[in-house]
Amino acid sequence: MLEVKDLVVNYGGIQAVKDVSFRVNTGEVVALIGANGAGKSTILKTISGLLRPRSGTILYEDKNIVGMAAAKIVKMGISQVPEGRHIFAGLTVSENLQMGAFGLKDKQAASDQLAVVYDRFPVLKERLNQDAATLSGGEQQMLAMGRALMARPKLLLLDEPSMGLSPIFIQEIFDIITKINEQGTTVLLIEQNAKQALAIANRGYVLASGTVKLTGTGAELLANPAVQATYLGVQPAT
Amino acid sequence: MQTMMQQMINGLSLGSIYALLALGYTMVYGIIKLINFAHGDIYMLGAFWGYYAINYLHFGFVGALLSAMVMASLSGVLIEYLAYRPLRNSPRIAALITAIGVSFFLENGMSFLFGANARNFPQVITTKTYYFFGVGISNVQLLILFTSLVLMVLLQFIIKQTTMGKAMRAVAVDPQAAQLVGINPDHVISFTFALGSALAGAAGVMIGLYYNSIDPLMGMVPGIKAFVAAVVGGIGSVPGAAVGGFLIGLLETGVQAIGLSAYKDAAVYLVLILMLVVLPAGLFGKRQREKV
Ligand SMILES: Nc1ncnc2c1ncn2[C@@H]1O[C@H](COP(=O)(O)OP(=O)(O)O)[C@@H](O)[C@H]1O
Ligand SMILES: [Mg+2]
Asked: Which residues form the ABC transporter domain (chain A) (predicted)?
């Protein structure tokens, strides 16, 4: 579904992503893990069209989407839940969700999808007329996910959805991601919370200083001693 | 008491003009953080369009008002497209200086094309003054108040209820997230300039009727005062701009009423300075709550 090839992304003179390649097959959950500053968010922003790569291609359903406008990419079926949630403060919960469907011309489809999202996140329905800024962190994360789902994406990009949440919410968010995937949405998940991300992922890639260091199935990476030592906080056996 | 009431009415009439102008400043600032110094000149363009539409196309008040709104909208959108959009990713100061340049260009361009002298605005409506307990209110004042209120309610409706209005607010709070939901910020910015400029165009026609005189530099001082009104209300806040406009109008006529006509402009600038010192966020502005 998505194939990223030889991606290089710079910020001015700084190279944040150096020659990264990976793929996401239809129906999968793929995790990109790596420490802070590894270049994960930069990759997602480039896929979504917020950043232009220095070089490389991003094939989505066999079309190169590099250089396309962000709005066009959303219309093609890629939605992103950005790091830090970025819900629209000052807009109500329901207005936020409505904005999620901005690109949907079909009003019926938008209202059907709204029902799906409220069903998935009942707490949003309870708060529909509340200013989104007044939601708790976990609720804001749900709103950000619901907003992204409003566009009925085929591929959902999630940037650190568990960041800053209490353990109980983290578990809930991972359960929801699994359910979203089971209902047919392909997921590319970025996490520092490597353990839980790899546990729900079909495959994963380990990123460090802007390059892919390791790849394998979720289970393989979880069992890999190098991954355990660096990302899972497991002490190597002596 | 009568004089006070009289000044109230005059102040509110003038204030509604400032309010219409201030709304444009505040909306544009809200969305691209630009103080559009050329905004007062859009109001001048609206007044000139009204002048020609009435004199040569024989439009009535409503026709002149609506067509001036359309023409002002188009001018505003064009200015944004040609002058500000290429600087979208430049430092803010570059756009600010460009805005001042656009303002000079419009003022001097109009002086060159149509002459710098003031001209009488055609009085499509014969002024009649009604007296209640010795307080006079003219039909033109009533029309200004009524039209301004209708436009403000309409604006509020657009911003609160329509998809484009919600997209405006979304782009204003978080342009990147707006892009991630499929909003094209350029479209929303054009829409914002169109709305703000339409209000300025309407204000231009109404001030023409009220003061009976227009000239290419007529936008300068009201432009600055409306900017002050926007700051008083809290720049970026739509209700703030409306309230700020009325307050500045009342202040100006109030200062005149106590015999200090010569200082009416100075009083407005004093308010700006005081406001920036005491309450920089304005009456309705958000206190510093920058996200990290
Ligand atoms: N807007 C920016 N300007 C300059 N450098 C940036 C910017 N955003 C991120 N970087 C740098 O790019 C690198 C990768 O950042 P990022 O993609 O955010 O990493 P991650 O999401 O993996 O934590 C880091 O070194 C970071 O400092
Ligand atoms: Mg990141």
From this structure: 2-234
The atom number, within ligand 1, closest to the CA of A207 reads 22
Answer yes or no: is B139 within a domain.
yes
Nearby residues of B106 by Cβ (< 8 Å), 6 or more positions away? B38, B41, B42, B44, B45, B216, B219
Mind telling me how many Å the CA of A102 is from chain B's nearest CA? Answer: 6
Q: In which residue are the tokens 């001097």 written?
A: B108
Q: Does residue B116 fall inside a structural domain?
A: yes
Does A71 sit within 8 Å of B183, measured CB to CB?
Answer: yes
Residue of minimum CA distance from atom 18 in ligand 1? A41
Q: What is the pTM of this model?
A: 0.91
Q: Which residues share a beta bridge with A206? A: A33, A214
Q: Span A2-88+155-231: which CATH code?
A: 3.40.50.300
CB contact under 8 A, A151 and B181: yes
Ligand 1 proximity of A36 Cβ (cutoff 6 Å): yes
Segments forming the whole domain that contains residue B143: 2-278
CATH of residue B79: 1.10.3470
Q: Is A39 left (phi over 0), alpha (psi -120 to 50) or beta?
A: left
Please identify every stretch of chain A with a pLDDT value under 70, giving residue numbers as ranges: 233-238
Q: Note whether residue B290 is domain-resident.
A: no
- Which residues are registered as beta bridge partners of A81? A158
Cα B146 from Cα B10, distance rounded (Å): 14
Q: What is the pLDDT of residues A54-106, one digit of tens each?
A: 999 999 999 999 999 999 999 999 999 999 999 999 999 999 999 999 988 88
A103/B contact by beta carbon, under 8 A: yes
Pocket test for ligand 1, best of A8, A9, A11 (most atoms within 8 A of CB): A11
Q: Is residue B45 part of a domain?
A: yes
